Sequence to fold (281 residues):
Amino acid sequence: MQPTIAKRDVTKHILKTFNIHMSKKLGQNFLIDENIVNGIVRAADIQQGETVLEIGPGIGTLTQGLAEAGANVVAVELDSRLIEVLAKTLEGYENIRIVHGDILKVNIAAEVDAPRFKVVANLPYYITTPIIMGLLEQRLPVDSLVTMIQKEVAERMVASPGGKEYGALSVAVQYFTKPEIMFAVPPSSFIPSPAVESAVIRCVVRDKPAVDVADERLFFRVVKAAFSQRRKTLNNAMKTMGVAGEVIQQALAAAQIDGTRRGETLSLVEFAAIANAMQLK
Ligand code: SAM
Fold:
């Protein structure tokens, strides 16, 4: 149908033909390695006819791989210059629909008209966290997210308590999903080469959150406060929640958590116990 886009010479030819100068601001680093595209498609375990939301199709590199695997792809791209490029590079694929818009603003449920879907993307790194957290918090019917992100951010998402990579992002991602790093990707797999290492992470969305919390907003307030000052004990860090010290002390006591511990040592179960023990008036 169309030549494989995930090649250095094909990508360069497309960029030259359409006179596209890539935007650093929009996180534009395009994949040029067919093996990586195939690896992402495999990690997403695409089944014929299932629906995939792709974020930031660029010139259509990954979109093409997904469509060839049989997915019905809805791809949201912000850069208007790329919309006309995509119309050409993906011409003939009837299972691809391009949406021009900002993924942080489009009404995803309305655009992706399917009972359940997967998210697959080589994300713009400057908004990795808002995109992933936004999709999870909206509680869209997403089965899994397979995304290329900065390797360091992927390591934070899968981190366990105790290490310096473990933080509010680890808790939030693990609350909603089971995350797993699939493989690392070197800068040479993109043009232009990004300054950082990348990794593909698969987050399988849980049927229900990892821990039972009575008040989700309060749970995340506790987590945020506990990590707000990493060197401080819970007794001190949790003061940033803006609730009375005795409320914090009572909650820690009821949850049987020693207030001289640091937030980074707490498991999701322990954070949930503190939030559930907190009686806010
Ligand atoms: N999928 C292509 C690939 O793998 O080669 C391009 C990936 S590139 C890392 C990220 C893409 O996201 C760019 O095409 C960029 O224009 C697009 N993008 C940036 N911000 C966006 C936003 N807020 N909403 C939708 N797309 C965005």
Summary: The chain has a mean pLDDT of 96. The radius of gyration is 21 Å. The first helix runs from residue 8 to 17.
